[in-house]
């Protein structure tokens, strides 16, 4: 009897080739996927480190105490951008105001780790407003600010009154001393001092970000006000400061009477546009400010003015101690305003004030008539025009004159 053997069929050559090809494709795909995952991880790691470096340079805006930002990093302490990333770890010149290190190095044995990206390539930074990683073959850019100027050249403005809101005027403006202290950029502090104008206004320019000390002293009585001003990037800050004493008000100066005079007609200049009213003066004559219901506005972006006739005084007789013109205005970033009057055919302006995004009272006082340099007369008050000069996108909803006399 013959035995029957069952044949075991194996893989054909074609099948083996197909299996090898499939394995190769899968391996290649997995390799590429693995490389993509690694590359994505390096990008994210680099972005996180760039964020930490930026926070070290300009601080963390989310760190706030009692509503005031507390962290401004290297720039807030030193007053300049670091010359290189080493300055975040090591004091670059024995600076007394340096309060680092501003970042933590992840590995003590790798002393340059914080200066290199996830590919081991050194970051590109030389004291500007951005840090660049090039290790991935493409630039990964971390902007610290829109420009260096936004960090180093800010402006603060203020108006000083006494406790009841009175302004110093010409007689007392030189008795107010304002000092402002901030880091100078080379390891020490600098203190600027200034007096105020007759409307109590002052300003300091080219100020770096940070919390800086402002001192206001009324010299005759040593009434002193100390404040910290939080200067954020690209800011034009305006604050109103009130001393604790009654130095220039009615009781202090022997003034016994006052009268408010409001616009009652068009003056010699009408350049501003109107909202909510038919005539410019009607937009600003409210006894109670109506905000955005009616106002005059600058539509040109440049400087534009209005002047208004005001009511005649009703005091009959008396000696005029001063006049104060007060307007209520707001504006977009960079907008400004002057309080102005017209007397004797000439226009006189107060301080150049930076507006904020909310309505704020802006004031200027004249103790004497600037046209005659003598005390005001009642007929000069009746002939007076009051108004404003606006720059940028800005609105004014109210203006009036306060007449002080005895």
Largest sheet: 6 strands, antiparallel
Task: Quote the average pLDDT.
Answer: 88
Q: Helices and strands: which structural class?
A: alpha+beta
How much beta, percentage-wise? 35-45%
> How widely separated are the two ends?
147 Å
Structural domain tally = 3
Total number of beta strands: 25
What does this structure look like?
- It is a single chain.
- The protein has 406 residues and is α+β, with helices and mostly antiparallel strands.
- The chain has seven helices and 25 strands.
- It has helices at residues 13-58, 73-78, 148-152, 169-172, 250-253, 280-283, 378-383, and strands at residues 64-65, 68-69, 130-133, 140-143, 154-161, 176-183, 189-194, 201-207, 210-218, 223-231, 236-242, 257-261, 263-270, 273-275, 295-297, 303-310, 320-331, 336-343, 346-349, 353-354, 360-366, 368-369, 374-375, 385-391, 394-405.
- The strands form seven sheets. Strands 12, 14, 15, 17, 21 and 25 form a six-stranded antiparallel sheet that branches. Strands 13, 16, 18, 19, 20 and 24 form a six-stranded antiparallel sheet that branches.
- The relative contact order is 0.11.
């Amino acid at each position: 009897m013959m035995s029957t053997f069952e044949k075991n069929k194996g893989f054909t050559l074609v099948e083996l080739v197909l299996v090898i090809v499939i394995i190769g494709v899968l391996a290649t795909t997995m390799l590429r996927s693995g490389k993509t995952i690694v590359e994505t991880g390096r990008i994210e790691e680099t972005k996180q480190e760039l964020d930490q470096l930026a926070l070290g340079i300009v601080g963390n805006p989310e760190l706030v105490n009692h509503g005031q930002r507390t962290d401004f990093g290297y720039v807030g302490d030193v007053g300049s951008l670091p010359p290189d990333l080493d300055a975040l770890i090591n004091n670059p010149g024995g600076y007394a105001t340096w309060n680092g290190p501003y970042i933590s190095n992840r590995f003590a044995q790798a002393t340059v780790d914080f200066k290199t990206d996830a590919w081991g390539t050194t970051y590109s930074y030389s004291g500007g407003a951005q840090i660049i990683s090039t290790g991935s073959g493409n630039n990964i850019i971390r902007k610290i600010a829109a420009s260096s100027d936004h960090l180093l050249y800010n402006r603060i403005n203020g108006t000083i009154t006494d406790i009841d809101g009175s302004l110093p005027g010409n007689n007392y403006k030189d008795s107010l001393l304002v000092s402002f202290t901030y880091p100078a950029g080379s390891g020490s502090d600098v203190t600027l001092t200034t007096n105020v104008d007759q409307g109590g206004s002052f300003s300091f320019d080219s100020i770096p970000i940070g919390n800086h000390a402002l001192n206001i002293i009324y010299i005759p009585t040593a009434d002193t006000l100390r404040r910290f001003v939080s200067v954020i990037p690209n800011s034009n800050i305006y604050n109103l400061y009130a001393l604790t004493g009654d130095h220039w008000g009615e009781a202090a100066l022997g003034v016994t009477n006052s009268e408010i005079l409001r616009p009652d007609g068009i003056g010699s200049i009408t350049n501003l546009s109107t909202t909510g009213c038919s005539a410019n003066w009607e937009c600003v004559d409210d006894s109670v400010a109506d905000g955005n219901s009616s106002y005059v506005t600058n539509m040109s972006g440049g400087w534009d003015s209005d002047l208004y006739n005001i009511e005649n005084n009703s005091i009959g007789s008396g000696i005029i101690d001063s006049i104060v013109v007060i307007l209520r205005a707001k504006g977009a970033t960079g907008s400004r305003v002057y309080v102005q009057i017209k007397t004797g055919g000439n226009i006189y302006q107060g301080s150049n004030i930076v507006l904020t995004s909310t309505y704020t009272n802006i004031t200027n006082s004249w103790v004497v008539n600037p046209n005659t340099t003598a005390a005001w007369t009642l007929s000069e008050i009746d002939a007076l025009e009051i108004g404003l000069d606006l720059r940028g996108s800005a609105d004014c909803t109210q203006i009036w004159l306060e007449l002080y006399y005895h």
